[in-house]
């Protein structure tokens, strides 16, 4: 099981960079940003955000050494497709092979309208475009210059492009896709190396339905679960920390939060080291390979690094309890 963590841009650029440096030193597997060019969920317009989060991740790559770089998710329609491919492989080169291409179809239509970008209003058509873009990237990245790329798709056409730079990771950086629509799952099955479900990441029955289907790929597939991870030396200490974090979230970011603390405690991963390791073993039995977690406090980040990461490193699911 690998544990990555979301970075918090609401504290500003410098704080997010320091958070990433700390995660890199502590042994977290990955750091994650979003990919939005307008404020979302009713957040106010402020002078210093949202920044271009691809550029922010490039800066993070320059000050970290080991941690992998991901977004939840990269909006495949915000950038010209061939330029976007060059941006991704450039980052893979300068980070020495740490990019995860976490792709998505996008949902906030105002971002296209207000930035005067080509707009595809229908979600399934955007998902179809995303699938075509991934197929093109796989072709280009495995046949770089001096070979030339020719591609005739419904949305993207390429005639004689000698693509560079080659990605460091071979055959190309892992491609994970986010979402649960039929069109998105089709892309995951046909082309991707990983799947980032939304609510299904906490629903073992739905996960089993998808991953046990006859057409689910036999190749290795990463499956990501999001959520919060609050661990302390004792159960009572963890619950007290969780109550503090729940109150903070209710005051600052209540969207999607359960109405009661009891529901929150049941939904999230909270407890002593042994209790959290047991929950993580349970997630592994569902087919989860990666946790992408949110921390409210630096104390919670540090506790996971101290109490869980050393126990998870190199261990098989059945061995997690120790």
Task: Describe it.
By secondary structure, this protein is an alpha/beta fold. It has a domain at 224-322. Helix content is 42%, strand content 16%. It contains 12 helices and 12 strands. The strands form 2 sheets. Strands 1, 2, 3, 4, 5, 8, 9, 10, 11 and 12 form a 10-stranded parallel beta sheet that branches. Strand 1, helix 1 and strand 2 form a beta-alpha-beta unit. The radius of gyration is 20 Å and the shape is globular. The model is unreliable at 316-322 (pLDDT under 50).
Low-confidence runs: 316-322
Helix fraction bin: 40-55%
- Give the number of helices: 12
Shape: globular
Q: How far apart are the termini?
A: 14 Å
The whole-number mean of residue pLDDT values reads 93
Q: What composes the largest sheet?
A: 10 strands, parallel
How many strand units? Answer: 12
Strand content: 15-25%
What would you call the structural class? Answer: alpha/beta
Oligomeric state? single chain
The radius of gyration computed from the alpha-carbon positions, rounded to a whole number of angstroms, is 20 Å
Q: List SSEs in N-to-C order.
A: EHEHEEHEHHEEEHEHEHHEHEHH
Keywords, separated by commas or semicolons:
single chain; 322 residues; alpha/beta; ten-stranded parallel β-sheet; two-stranded antiparallel ribbon; 12 helices; disordered C terminus
